[in-house]
Specification:
Strand order of the largest sheet of chain A: 2-1-5-3-4
Distance between the termini of chain A: 62 Å
Shape of chain C: globular
CATH superfamily of the largest domain in chain A: Alpha-helical ferredoxin
Number of strands of chain A: 7
Strand content of chain C: under 5%
CATH class of chain C: Mainly Alpha
Number of strands of chain C: 2
Radius of gyration of chain C: 20 Å
Number of helices of chain C: 9
Number of helices of chain A: 9
Strand content of chain A: 5-15%
Structural class of chain A: alpha+beta
Largest interface: A-B, 79 and 80 residues
Oligomer: heterotrimer
Bound molecules: flavin-adenine dinucleotide, protoporphyrin IX containing FE, iron/sulfur cluster, FE3-S4 cluster, FE2/S2 (inorganic) cluster
CATH superfamily of chain C: Fumarate reductase/succinate dehydrogenase, transmembrane subunit
CATH topology of the largest domain in chain A: Fumarate Reductase Iron-sulfur Protein, Chain B, domain 2
Distance between the termini of chain C: 58 Å
Chains: A alpha+beta (about 250), B alpha+beta (about 650), C mainly alpha (about 230)
Radius of gyration of chain A: 20 Å
Helix content of chain A: 25-40%
Shape of chain A: elongated
CATH architecture of chain C: Up-down Bundle
């Protein structure tokens, strides 16, 4: 199949960028979208042009490295699928696909489609953990946890930190990412203990990074490759108010 | 190759430092006698941790928690993305929660046996001992392992064991364990004890006064070469399976850091031991960039078969029972579809080599769930494997509930790595190697769910003790800073390498070279090896290396984000490693674990191990000429060496 | 936690828009039902308005609270919008909604517009009615008990005989309905009262409430214009 691409090219953080048109004449429907970009890059290299830079690593939807706006949707049109697992059979021969980087003030562009998502790490560093040092843990079965609770915590814990939620959110909010971690740890007795401190610190960090506020659009849930529910955002707010009331 | 007889003695350079005493007491004896570093002194020590996977993140977090000053590096934009994140199946521990008779001894024994008796008893026993602490630690960090309705942790069984000792978090165990370690690391970052430097690639090791004292890293955004001095360097950089180009490893997995250390004096052990996983989604075309693993657990309910007639081109559902060959069940009646990974992989290769492969490329066999669905109902199958089936459908477009999966083996894990002693120290003092990057605990074959265990054991529970032993023995006068002349020299060498790749302006991309190398290794240093092919492969790789430096094309410049430049450097190292892998495979004139030499097999086509001649670790030393071989003889005082049979 | 900083944090801001929003929803529903007492006749409507006024300090407290709600709600709503622009200085060349389970339909994405229009409306509305002609201007009615009160019924009737009011109001009421369509769901989510199980029901409830309020309100102007 023939695929036309309009790809965002940008030299560096400060340079202006633009969409550039390319054609990949020998695409296959079995290719993943990133493999299509690989093929484009080999083509560019052969023509003496500079390849398109983009991030990827695991290419199986778990590491969260990849992340592109494909045809206007974060990670592309297929539901619950990171762009590395998006396959070309989602497109038609002759399609023109626009590819842009994730955009947010807190995610500055490094080059082409590569952005800096270290703001997420700083949100986790603010308090996205249980304060336990190595060796001090009691026996793993000392605290029973109902299966349903553990399962729900796991649902939130599956966030891969890809940033699609921010990219898709009309407000550029990082609420889903932040809430997923707060909900995961807050549901478990191990993490519940320091929940008030955690919520405050993480929310403040999210603010300091320059992410937008959440207007409950749930566009984030719709693009999240792990289908993290916005119910997590509600529970983050509950935890926040609880912290507020308890001082 | 030198005379085999002379080679077969223990090398004086390889002191394993295994403590004396009973196997069960060695680790306690070690801990009781090891020198400690006082809290005040810990603060004055600076530790460089390269890698943020399970091994690196757990080590960095733990050492910082103890009070050391830690700087941690990783290639990805966040430490949370290290390749460990992709592990699916689970992690072993000898908790014996199901009360099915598991003990530390059994976990130790299964691991030694699974490794085909090519690992060090004392290391493996220690691994089994600390396994339980890992689960405790992870749960305390908030890792949401699967649980039973009673609220207790749930276990499942995994290949190579008769007990249920595998803890898991759906099909994302590696992710959850890594996030636990990453969060512990983030905690220490927030306390100011760890400085985390993502998007940094270690490209060389600095050795001064015969000790590892720092490293050169490339800032992958600005391209700058940066110098970091430290009192010890911990290499936690993962495995080298990507040498084969196509593997289940992540795109950034590489051997560069380990290879640079090898070139600076660390010995590389058993490079020929690679694990080829039988159930992966097959290659669909030349553009393919990586392979995706389908968990081993699928073989619990799936039946493997190929059409009896190579020319049978009917859709699989249309092929009647009597025209199918369930070859695993036929050849291994007692284990059937559940034979270990290496056996299952070789059997699939054999079918395809003989022309009975299926699918467009004919490099695949069927994994069929029709019987199980009929027997247990689609609901049960969905409950057990739902997410894997979805993943399969996403990639292939086929629905495995309706039509059998197509699977083929793929490179998955590397048991070889830098040689380390009981303290995880390499042959360069001050350079420690943890996780998949070292050669330690898995011998010639790794059991499922034990790599996660090893990475975390190394980082959380072994290195905190053994690093102290090293540091307590160093003197203030050994400490060097970034201004030391060695830093300048090494930085210059590293810079020159990068420049020469950029200036070359050839006509072949790094990927093209990587694919060619991969093809050579897969064909000749893959599932089956033989003398003739290995010899010719060594030559072919030499030629590829020469060609690389003549024809490599790297676009752009070194002063910015440049993925091709990164890849080019890694491919150059893979090429050199490939040659060593072939050499090591050639030297090991036996079949064991993941290493199958066609010349050494039983009349029935099974692996023939040679314990008389090859119960050893082959550790290679870099020299200006051919690499020099050193041997560590393995002695088995506690287990009896038996032949593996799955008939 | 310092209360002020807490309430200006991203979550605090949302909790406040949610709380004030719910307050406004309550008012609007009450107001809508009150307006329907126009239908039985002048006696009922004028009496109802008068009864409210005669509640004395309770009425004034509610009024002040209401004013505060409007003020806070509008300020925070607008500040959220400003932060939104700041959070993404460079926009997309191409952007599409990913569809279900996204809640960002027309109503959601137009909150700021419907909100600001409501603000403008409110000012004009208060000028027209609350601060419009009263007893001094001769709009007087006598109740059954002989009390002489402001004749709001007449005022309403006159106003909605003018096409601009008669048709302008219903348009605004539709916008109000849209504001509530996303608003009610959103406020419950903002206040943390949402769970994965409840969410679809409450989202549907929000739509019903939005239609209910819009129709309830726009009925009176149209009734007056065409049928009185
Ligand atoms: C698909 C898949 C499934 C698996 N499933 C299981 C399983 O179920 N159970 C199990 O036990 N094992 C499993 N394994 C194996 C296991 O995941 C790995 O062996 C283990 O995670 C390796 O951990 P590590 O910490 O040693 O290295 P990695 O996790 O690979 O981390 C390497 C780190 O080093 C960094 N790095 C590398 N090179 C450099 C450099 N030059 N400079 C700076 N940083 C560098 C990387 O950025 C990264 O942070 C699986 C493996 C794969 C591929
Ligand atoms: C005074 C004029 C008004 C303005 C400027 C305004 C503005 C806004 C804005 C911009 C939002 C979106 C906030 C966000 O993005 O998170 C919002 C939400 C909301 N508005 Fe209004 N609005 C006004 C009046 C009203 C009225 C009269 C009602 C009552 C029916 C109302 C009910 C709501 C509700 C319930 C929400 C949802 C709150 C939340 O998301 O937490 N608003 N308003
Ligand atoms: C058809 C629609 C409406 C009609 C006929 C109507 C009618 C009136 C009337 C007659 C008054 C004067 C009451 C008095 O002065 O005692 C009034 C007051 C008021 N209305 Fe409306 N209204 C309508 C819609 C709205 C809407 C949609 C809002 C909110 C956004 C609103 C907000 C107010 C407020 C705040 C007051 C002042 C209340 C007070 O402080 O006494 N009205 N309305
Ligand atoms: S919440 Fe979903 S979209 Fe957001 S970072 Fe996590 S996985 Fe990505
Ligand atoms: S899309 Fe944005 S507005 Fe909130 S619900 Fe999701 S963060
Ligand atoms: S590359 Fe890892 S999630 Fe896509």
């Amino acid at each position: 199949m023939i695929i036309n691409l309009r790809v965002w090219r940008q030299e560096g953080p400060e340079s202006p960028g633009k969409l550039v048109d390319y054609t990949v004449p020998e695409a296959s429907e079995h290719m993943s979208f990133l493999e299509l970009l690989d093929v484009l890059n080999e083509q560019l290299l052969a023509d003496g042009e500079e390849p398109v830079e983009f991030d990827s690593d695991c290419r199986e939807g778990i590491c969260g490295s990849c992340g592109l706006m494909v045809a206007g949707i974060a990670h592309g049109p297929q539901k619950r699928t990171a762009v590395c697992q998006l396959h070309m059979r989602s497109f038609k021969d002759g399609d023109t696909i626009t590819v842009e980087p994730f955009r947010a003030r807190a995610f500055p562009v490094i080059r082409d489609l590569v952005v800096d998502r270290s703001a997420f790490d700083r949100i986790i560093t603010a308090h996205g953990y249980v304060s336990v040092t190595t060796g001090s843990a009691p026996d793993a079965n000392a605290i029973p946890i109902p299966k349903d609770t553990a399962d729900e915590a796991m649902d939130y814990a599956t966030c891969i930190g890809c940033g699609a939620c921010v990219a898709a959110c009309p407000n550029g909010s990082a609420s889903l990412f932040t809430a997923a971690k707060i909900a995961h740890l807050g549901l478990l007795p191990q993490g519940e203990v320091e929940s008030p401190q955690r919520v405050t610190a993480m929310v403040n960090q999210m603010d300091a990074e320059g992410f937008g506020d959440c207007s409950n659009y749930a566009e984030c849930e719709a693009v999240c490759p792990k289908g993290i529910s916005v119910a997590g955002i509600a529970s983050m707010r509950r935890a926040y108010m609880k912290g507020l009331l308890s001082g | 190759m030198g005379s085999p007889v002379a080679e077969r003695s223990q090398s004086p350079r390889l002191d394993s430092k295994v403590p004396s005493g009973r196997l069960q007491e060695k680790w306690d004896i070690y801990k009781n006698s090891v020198s400690l570093v006082s809290p005040a002194n810990k603060r004055s020590h600076h530790i460089l941790v390269v890698g943020s996977g399970l091994a690196g993140a757990s080590a960095a977090a733990t050492l910082a928690g103890l009070g050391y000053n830690v700087t941690c590096f990783c290639i990805q934009d966040s430490p949370r993305r290290a390749h460990s994140i992709a592990a699916q199946g689970g992690i072993n521990a000898a908790k014996n929660y199901p009360n099915d008779g598991d003990t530390i001894w059994r976990l130790f024994y299964d691991t030694i046996k699974g490794g085909d008796y090519r690992s060090r008893e004392a290391n493996v026993y220690r691994l089994a001992q600390v396994s339980n602490n890992i689960i405790d630690q992870a749960v305390a960090q908030g890792v949401p392992f699967a649980r039973e309705y009673g609220g207790m942790l749930s276990n499942r069984s995994f290949g190579g064991a008769q007990v249920s000792r595998t803890f898991y978090a759906r099909g994302q165990t590696g992710q959850q364990l890594l996030l636990g370690a990453y969060q512990a690391l983030s905690h220490q970052v927030s306390m100011g004890r760890v400085k985390m430097l993502p998007r940094r690639e270690m490209i060389d090791l600095v050795v001064a006064n015969d000790r590892a004292c720092g490293l050169i890293a490339r800032n992958l955004i600005t391209g700058e070469l940066e110098r970091y001095a430290g009192d010890a360097v911990l290499l936690c950089t993962g495995g080298y399976g990507n040498a084969y180009y196509l593997s289940t490893n992540a795109k950034n997995s590489n051997v560069t850091a380990a290879w640079r250390c090898y070139k600076r004096g660390a010995f590389f052990a058993n490079p020929c031991y690679t694990q080829i996983h039988p159930t992966c989604i097959p290659v669909s075309g030349d553009y393919q960039s990586k392979l995706t693993l389908m968990s081993e657990s699928l073989r619990n309910d799936g039946r493997v078969w190929v059409p009896k007639d190579p020319k049978d081109s009917r859709a699989p559902e249309m092929i009647p029972e009597d025209a199918r060959d369930y070859y695993l069940e036929r050849r291994y009646p007692s284990f059937g579809n559940l034979v270990p990974r290496d056996v299952a992989s070789r059997a699939a290769k054999k079918e395809c080599d003989e022309g009975r492969g299926v699918g467009e490329t004919r490099l695949a066999v069927y994994l069929d769930f029709a019987d199980s669905i009929r027997r247990l109902g689609e609901h049960t199958i969905r409950e057990r494997y739902g997410n894997l089936f979805e993943m399969y459908e996403r990639i292939t477009g086929d629905n495995p509930y309706k039509t059998p999966m197509r699977i083929y083996p793929a490179v998955h894990y590397t048991m070889g790595g830098l040689w380390v002693d009981y303290e995880l120290q390499s042959t360069v003092p001050g350079l420690f190697v943890l996780g998949e990057a070292n050669f330690s605990d898995h011998g010639a074959n790794r059991l499922g769910a034990s790599a996660l265990m090893q990475g975390l054991a190394d980082g959380y529970f072994v290195i905190p003790y053994t690093l102290g032993a090293y540091l307590a023995g160093t003197r203030q006068s050994d400490q060097v800073t970034e201004t030391h002349e060695h830093f300048a020299t090494v930085e210059e060498e590293a810079g020159a390498r990068i420049d020469s790749m950029l200036k070359n302006k050839g006509d072949k991309s790094p990927t093209q070279f990587h694919r060619e190398l991969g093809r050579l290794l897969w064909d000749h240093v893959g599932m089956a090896r033989n003398r003739t092919d290995l010899m010719s492969t060594i030559d072919a790789i030499e030629n590829l290396k020469e060609e690389f430096w003549e024809r490599i094309l790297v676009p752009g410049s070194a002063d910015r984000y440049n993925k091709n430049l990164e890849f080019a450097g890694r491919v150059a190292d893979f090429i050199e490693l490939g040659s060593l892998m072939a050499r090591d495979a050639l030297r090991r004139e036996e079949s064991c674990g993941g290493h199958f030499r066609e010349e050494y097999q039983t009349p029935e086509g099974e692996a023939a191990r040679d314990d008389e001649a090859f119960a050893d670790v082959a550790a290679w030393e870099h020299t200006e000429q051919d690499p020099a071989l050193h041997l560590e003889q393995l002695s088995f005082e506690n287990v009896h060496l038996t032949k593996r049979s799955y008939k | 936690m310092n209360l002020i900083t807490a309430l200006t944090s991203p979550v605090g801001r949302k909790v406040l828009t949610g709380a004030t929003g719910i307050g406004l929803v309550a008012f609007v529903i009450a107001h809508m039902i009150g307006n329907l007492s126009y239908l039985p006749g002048p006696e009922a409507y004028n009496g109802y308005a008068h009864k409210l006024l005669s509640l004395g300090w309770i009425f004034y407290t509610i009024e002040i609270l209401l004013a505060l709600c409007f003020l806070l709600h509008a300020i925070i709503g607008i500040s959220i919008q400003i932060r939104r622009w700041q959070a993404r200085p460079v926009g997309y060349k191409m952007y599409k909604s990913a569809g279900k389970p996204s809640r960002s339909g027309y109503s959601a994405r137009s909150m700021i517009f419907t909100g600001i229009i409501l603000l403008g409306f409110l000012i004009l509305h208060l000028i027209s009615f609350k601060y419009g002609p009263g007893v001094a201007e001769g709009y007087t009615a006598t109740l059954d008990n002989g009390e002489s009160v402001r004749d709001l019924h007449r005022l309403m009737t006159e106003k909605f005989k003018e096409p601009l009011y008669a048709f302008g109001y219903p348009i605004i009421m539709i916008l109000l309905g849209m504001h509530m369509r996303h608003g009610v769901w959103s406020a419950l989510q903002s206040l943390g009262m949402m769970s994965r199980r409840l969410s679809p029901y409450l989202y549907a409830l929000a739509a019903i409430l939005g239609v209910f309020v819009a129709v309830g309100f726009l009925f009176v102007p149209l009734y007056i214009y065409f049928l009185v």
